[in-house]
Design goal:
The complex is a heterodimer of chains A (215) and B (378). With 215 residues, chain A is α+β, with helices and mostly antiparallel strands. Chain A has helices spanning 31-41, 54-68, 71-80, 97-108, 117-120, 127-136, 152-164, 195-198, 207-214, and strands spanning 3-12, 15-18, 21-25, 86-92, 142-146, 170-179, 182-192, 203-204. Chain B has 378 residues and is an alpha/beta fold. Classes of the chains: A alpha+beta (215), B alpha/beta (378).
């Protein structure tokens, strides 16, 4: 079975790249402002976005870039794959540590002891998977891996195994890391190379390609 | 290809190996106790290690001053499985998967011991320290997927063996009870002040517990033990409904169970080890899922009444106890359960009984809308 990457998105240093092309760029050094600007530019109109922590916002923006620009591509991706057969496999280095620090601050002072359930729920890295799943009603397999660096071998092997098991027909995969205002997201879509989509300019999924696209 | 469970080990406040832990639950001993915890001047019902427990563990580890509490417990547990199986992490075909939600989260609260850097709060750094202790040649892989982490790690282990990349996977799950998690679950009003009562009409929340559990997953027939069970299949699925509340119609768990049982209809399930956290919504959702999946008559239990919710350890811990129950042909009663308080029909086990168990369905669900199921057969 041949697997192909049908689209990919990268977010780093105040810039969003879709398939290598810069589509949104900002002078804002503050990630909160940049994410808010990007949300506006992408015309996402999804108020839940504002409640998310930074890790979820980052993963959400990258996925929405893939599925909303151009809208036709995202719509097709979601239509040609059953929503219960789309898997979401993400990874990062910092888990939810950035939000953990914010939550910890809220409980470190006994006189201003204000633990918030709305913050606590984001102290798990897989919540970003939940946010993406909820937006598009995607109910397939989930996994969140934590590794020192982007691990192309891990992601390729695991994705291939999932497709072999037949409950997976497409996957949203990649890296989404947010740590103390440093951030990087690389999300790509994997599908089977069927006749109908084979002839387009898609790339076969393999480690070398992933490492190239990640850079 | 047959991929099966092999040697295993549990360290918890109820015992220092799998046998002690199994005997404890068979004798209806509860790890959860009402205690004062941390700076929060409140009584909580928790299952935590004593200082004495930790000292015993430290004595078994070389240079124990170089390791955090969770690292020591994990090294202790992994060591037992490596010793018994003679599998080595220096082998290129052996992988360590570490399942955790919060890792060394206690480093936020406690003064950092000498020689331990704040970097150890990064889960991969922590896992590398554990791997390095055993000379691991492959970087350990961390799975952090909320409360399904442990069961999902076992399913992932099977997939990596099935792909040919590895022959053996050591799955270690561990989490601590910390002010971080206690205050967080309290802010959700999700903590019970009494021993928790999964699936019961009077259930009013979870207890938190700490434990580390390790299990070897392998395809090497020489590593078959008298408790080994084949991992026939496993699956995860997302509710796509809410990040902190389970789906009312249990769609995600139903999908995970159906994908697990698909193509295995000839296997009669003898026993279900459910997630059963004892929150009103979670247990209700699970009961709906079991009824929808036509599993209402099968004896089911939750181990949370004994250990509390051990987060990243739970799936591994509960799988080990379930396969030990199968080996002994015993059904362990669901601690804390008297009268059903869920709308879906379930056969929650109230009394210990002797029964042949050839197959087990294990399930888990967690924040982020995630669900997992796996089928084990003797």
């Amino acid at each position: 079975m041949e697997l192909i990457i049908t689209s990919y998105c990268k977010i780093k240093r105040n810039t969003i790249y879709l398939e290598g092309n810069k589509i949104i760029s900002s002078n804002s050094e503050n990630p909160s402002y940049f994410f808010a600007e990007a949300y506006k530019t992408l015309e996402l109109n999804y108020p839940k976005f504002h409640k998310m922590d930074m890790l979820s916002k980052l993963g959400f923006l990258a996925t929405e870039t893939l599925l909303s620009i151009p809208k036709a591509f995202g719509t097709e991706f979601l239509l040609r794959n059953n929503l219960n057969q789309i898997s979401i496999i993400l990874s990062n280095h910092s888990s939810s540590l950035d939000t953990d620090r914010i939550y910890q601050k809220s409980i470190s002072n006994k006189d201003q002891y204000l633990p918030s359930p709305a913050t606590f729920v984001y102290t798990l890295p897989n919540i970003v998977i939940g946010e993406i799943a909820i937006k598009h009603k995607i109910t397939g397999e989930n996994a969140f891996f934590v590794s020192e660096k982007f691990d192309a071998e891990l992601l390729v092997n695991y994705t291939q195994e999932l497709f072999k098991e037949a409950n997976t027909n497409a996957a949203i995969c990649g890296w989404v890391d947010y740590d103390d205002a440093n951030y990087e997201a690389f999300i790509y879509l994997v599908e089977k190379a069927t006749d109908s989509i084979k002839n387009a300019n898609f790339k076969a999924l393999n480690q070398t390609l992933l490492n190239q696209l990640f850079l | 290809m047959e991929i099966f469970t092999s040697y295993h080990h549990i360290i918890s406040p109820l015992g220092f190996n799998s046998e002690e832990n199994y005997s404890a639950v068979l004798a209806n001993k509860l790890g959860v106790k009402k205690i004062n915890f941390g700076k929060l001047n409140n009584l909580f019902c928790l299952s935590v290690f004593s200082e004495e427990n930790l000292n015993t563990v430290s004595q078994e580890i070389n240079n124990s001053h170089l390791f955090t509490k969770l690292e020591k417990l994990s090294i202790f547990s992994i060591q037992q499985v490596l010793n018994k199986s003679a599998v080595s992490l220096t082998d290129k075909k052996t992988l360590l998967i570490y399942s955790t939600t919060k890792g060394n989260i206690d480093l936020f609260e406690n003064q950092l011991p000498n020689l331990i850097s704040k970097k150890r709060m990064y889960l991969s750094t922590m896992a590398n320290e554990i791997g390095n202790y055993f000379g691991a040649v492959n970087k350990p892989l961390v799975v952090s997927n909320a409360c399904i982490s442990g069961l999902l790690s076992i399913i992932i282990a099977k997939r990596f063996i099935s792909s040919g990349q590895f022959d053996n996977v050591i799955v270690c799950g561990g989490d601590l009870v910390s002010e971080f998690t206690v205050s967080g679950f309290k802010s959700f009003n999700a903590l019970s002040v009494n021993p928790c009562k999964p699936f019961d009409a009077k259930r009013d929340g979870i207890n938190l517990g700490e434990a580390v559990a390790t299990i070897l997953i392998t395809k090497n027939k020489n590593l078959k033990t008298n408790s080994s069970m084949n991992i026939v299949n496993g699956a995860s699925a997302n509710d796509a409904n809410h990040i902190s509340g389970p789906s009312r119609n249990a769609d995600g768990l139903v999908q995970a169970i159906q994908n697990t049982l698909k193509n295995n209809s000839e296997i009669k399930i003898d026993f279900i080890n459910a997630h059963g956290t004892a929150t009103p919504y979670n247990d209700e959702m699970e009961s709906v899922a079991f009824e929808r999946a036509a599993l209402s008559e099968i004896p089911a239990n939750s181990f949370k009444g004994y250990y509390g919710h051990t987060l990243g350890a739970a799936g591994v811990l509960e799988t080990i106890l379930s396969i030990e129950a199968a080996r002994h042909g015993q059904i362990i009663k669901s601690a804390g359960f008297e009268t059903s308080g869920v709308s879906g029909k379930m056969n929650v086990v109230k009394e210990y009984k002797t029964q042949t168990i050839n197959s087990i369905l294990k399930t888990a669900s967690g924040f982020g809308g995630c669900n997992a199921a796996a089928l084990f057969v003797r």
